[in-house]
Amino acid sequence: MKKIIFIVVIAFTITTIPSCKKFLDINTDPDRLPAEQANIAQLLTTATANIGFTGGSDLQRYTALIMQQYSGQSSGAQNQTQDYEKYLITGSDVNNLFSTLFATILNDLELIITKGAELNAPHYTGVAKILKAYTYQISVDAFGDLPYSEAQKKTENLSPKYDDDEQIYKNLITLINEGITEINQTTSSASPGANSLIYPGAFSTTKTNWIKFANTLKLRIFTHYSKIDKPFLVSQITSLVGTGTFMTANADNFEMRFFNEANRQNPISQFEVLRGNYLVANKTIVDSMNSRLDPRRATYFTQFPAGSGNYRGAVSGAPPSQQYSRLHSYLRGTVLTTPPPNTDGSFDGGGGSRAIIYAGDAPVRMLTFAEYNFIRAEAALYGAPGVAQTFFQAGIMASMQMAGVSTADATAYIAANGLLSGDLADNLKRIIQEKYVASYGVVLEPWTDWRRTGYPQITKVSNAVVDGIPRSLLIPQSEIDLNPNAPAQKASVLERIFWDK
After folding, report:
1. What is the CATH class of 2-228+469-500?
2. The whole model's pTM is what?
3. Beta 70-72 vs 279-281: how paired, if at all?
């Protein structure tokens, strides 16, 4: 299944780059661009396309299954999502993910940084450095130690050493700060425009989005220290809040938009079409939202039975069945056709005759304004600036707005569920529980939150193949086979990232 999604990424890139005239900076005549500048413009298109697709592909599925937002299903024979849900994620399973991260995304970004410096194009190098920091952040949080100081050297070094994950994290803050400084330069021989598939548009406008994202990404990184060094978290966030600008609305979300066009549809929706009976909603998140009559259910999941107003999730190891709620418009986009349901009230998966047809135009959300507010709420509990209650409710409202919930329904939900009135542990539990729901579809972060806080309180699945819930992904088998400087394979997926000690 991973090869299919990888091919889709390439198809998206191929169909996008030949149309580069419409993607270049609006203040520059694309017919008069030097070849080198056209090259970095195309590289940014490719890099942002792959970042967006990665945000909705393997890594998102692995972690949504681990965190019991999705459940694996089948039409009979065992399939890969069922293996992943019981924590059978091998080194070979992550080969394509690792290749996309390192051989494609990070290599393209490094080329932009190198060529942009040669061309005196700091707006390009600044954006590339921020995207590099984001890509390494999710990579470290998934794998731990990784090639960094010797990576992206092309033929100069085909066997990079692995650097300590904590040291990489420290370097990411420096990298982000460099990116912000370069984005703020008053002169640049070329600037990103519509060729960036994330924050597209005139750079004079979007540079503010990039800076807000960069600072919010630093907040995310500092928050990940909550388990091992709360004083560091508080001091760093306090300093940053005093000087930085952050996301202020859902329009600032770090996300990639998709369209109801061939090869340009959301990868979550594409997977649902190609593997129609591989995923359904999970009982953990569905029951949690049911208990609070959460209005986001209407776009998160299909009803089961159809038209009943009820929602039902599956558990790992359940017998093959279609009698569950499926992933819905929040992740898959505009509903184009709703057929009559099957006699049992279910809808088919994928291309079945009783399957709901979606446009595939939902964005892939990777860091949101809602997350920003939950980060600030959590940090405020520990002593950083701000009122936890205010940020907590703002995070819920931002999530409700993304899900298309009416203001009246969102306000009623917050009145019933948005009060922080317990001790620190109870308030943290409530913040992370709401963040977990708001981060539905966000790659990796719900897993990171659980590993560092213990919330939401999920339990190991009954058919697990390891004695615990995974704490990291294995080293790719391709690295073990081909890189003599790769470390020995981990004993299991229970090995921890540095901030999870």
Report:
1. mainly alpha
2. 0.92
3. antiparallel
